[in-house]
Amino acid sequence: MDPSELQLDGVFYVGLQARLDLNGKGFSAAELHGTLTGLACAGWLETELDSCQALLGQDTIENSIENDLLTGLMGLIRQTLDAGNLEFRLLLPGDDEPLETRAQALADWCQGCVMGLHHGDRFKTAELDDEITQFLSDLGQIGIVQVGNDSPEEQERALFELEEYTRVGVQMVFEEDPSSGRVKPNGTGNTRGSVK
């Protein structure tokens, strides 16, 4: 599947969630997207998803449609992160869904991202600067977020801010981590696996 054919919106989220529910995967579309994003940030490529079968809730990736979907989604993630222009978006339910549903999806996304980052021990936190180390700690905390008692407007604003913080933070992790395969603007860094 060509990554450019995928549009990550509420409609795509609902369709992917229905597919995951139908196949009994036991995790949300947000968690799957977060996991694939974490894998991309840790340097995993679309062609290596077979090595991540257990993490992705699969015995095997034999179904070509499912394989195409996962590789296309991973390709889109890597493509938008590699562009470095903040095009990257989290796959979350649409704004018309209840706040509780969207907050839980963000928590699921963050938990998946943390799992993907640490799969296979490719991601080396010792090599990261303090700002990114702090973001990674925050990512774990966002993974247990719950809706508070503030006014609905304040809760909406807080959720939006957490989503944006997560989105920008993931971009920073991808650009900073040498295992991501991204060529840094000054020409240093690993050139392996960039998606164009």
Task: Provide the gyration radius in Å.
Answer: 16 Å
Distance between the termini: 14 Å
Average of the residue pLDDT scores: 81
How much helix is in the residues?
40-55%
Low-confidence stretches: 182-196
How does the helix and strand content classify structurally? mainly alpha
Question: What name does CATH use for the topology?
Answer: Four Helix Bundle (Hemerythrin (Met), subunit A)
The tally of domains stands at 1
Just give the CATH class: Mainly Alpha
Shape: globular
Secondary structure: number of strands: 0
Note the main sheet. none
- The secondary-structure element order is HHHHHH
The number of helical elements comes to: 6
Q: CATH homologous superfamily - what is it?
A: YgfB uncharacterised protein family PF03695
Q: How much β-strand is present in the residues?
A: under 5%
Q: In CATH terms, what is the architecture?
A: Up-down Bundle
